[in-house]
Amino acid sequence: MTAPPGRRERKKAATRQKIADTALRLFLERGYDAVGIRDVAAEADVAVTTLFSHFASKEALVFEQDDEFERRLTRAVTDRAAHEPLVPALRHEVEALVRHCTGDDAGPTWHLIDETPALRAYEESMRLRHAESLAAAMTADARLTPTPTACRTIARFVIDAYSLARDADDPDAALDETFRMIEAAWEAARSSPRAAAAGPRPATPRGRPARG
User: Fold this and answer.
1) Are 70 and 154 found together in one domain?
2) 201 burial class (0-12, 13-18, 19+ CB within 10 angstroms)?
3) Of 125, 122, 132, nearest to 74 (Cα)?
4) What domain count does the chain have?
5) What residue numbers bound the domain in which 144 lies?
6) Tens digit of pLDDT for each residue in 163-205?
7) What is the pLDDT of residues 155-165, one digit of tens each?
8) Long-range contacts of 44-52, Cβ-Cβ distance < 8 Å, separation of 24 or more
């Protein structure tokens, strides 16, 4: 069982959330380009150095759950039950992320992102990073036989499925359609001659792909 966070961790989390909420409010009120880091720090009543201890860039303020989303995706691989199939586990997590990002209050934030080139570029790089982290978790899982290239391909499909569903009029239908294709691609990767010949790979440290 995971121990509950201590007082220091709770205080850090509260400060981080306060900074992110303040930044988003200012961006929505004034426009992203009209608000500087010092404006956010002053409004949140924290030092600029404190802000940067929580967020590496101005763009990151808009994507404050970036790291948590990445962890959830990789845990869908690493924490699934011994005999739980991979694709349904990923589908379940992607559904949860889509629900989070398509709530009634999410519209203004996505409009801000869509109209701001810097935020669009950051989101694209974030998606690629999430795909690479997911692929690394898949490659490191000794229970899975597909090659590292196949794992990277499927991981990108999964991240794209999230993005497509998030923007769709019917997210559930979009996930149904995309994950049927992902399942078929994964089954093809598992049954490829190279994967069959390789068999289960030796486990590697989490987050580092197996070589060979």
Assistant:
1) yes
2) buried
3) 132
4) 2
5) 66-198
6) 999 989 999 999 999 999 999 999 999 887 655 555 555 444 4
7) 999 999 999 99
8) 44/18, 44/19, 46/15, 46/18, 46/19, 50/15, 50/19, 51/19
Structure tokens belonging to residue 95: 């559904």
Q: Residue 203 falls within a domain, yes or no? A: no
Does residue 178 share a domain with residue 95?
yes
3-class secondary structure for 136-192? HHHHHCCCCCCCHHHHHHHHHHHHHHHHHHHHCCCHHHHHHHHHHHHHHHHHHHHCC
Dist CA 4 CA 10 (whole Å): 9
In this structure, which amino acid lies at residue 121?
A
Residues 47 and 90 in one domain: no
- State the residue for tokens 């069959």: 196
Inter-residue contact 203 to 140 (CB < 8 Å)? yes
Same domain, 84 and 133: yes
pLDDT band at 50 (very low <50, low <70, confident <90, very high): very high
33 sits in which H/E element:
none
73 and 48 fall within a common domain: no
Domain shared by 51 and 84, yes or no? no
Scan for tokens 């349904």, then name that residue: 88
Q: Decide if 61 is inside a domain.
A: no
**pLDDT of 6:** 84
The pTM for the full model equals 0.82
Over 80: is that where the pLDDT of 77 sits?
yes
Report which of 28, 201, 1, 197 is spatially closest to residue 110, judged by C-alpha positions. Answer: 28
Residue whose pair of structure tokens reads 């994507």 in the numeric block: 63
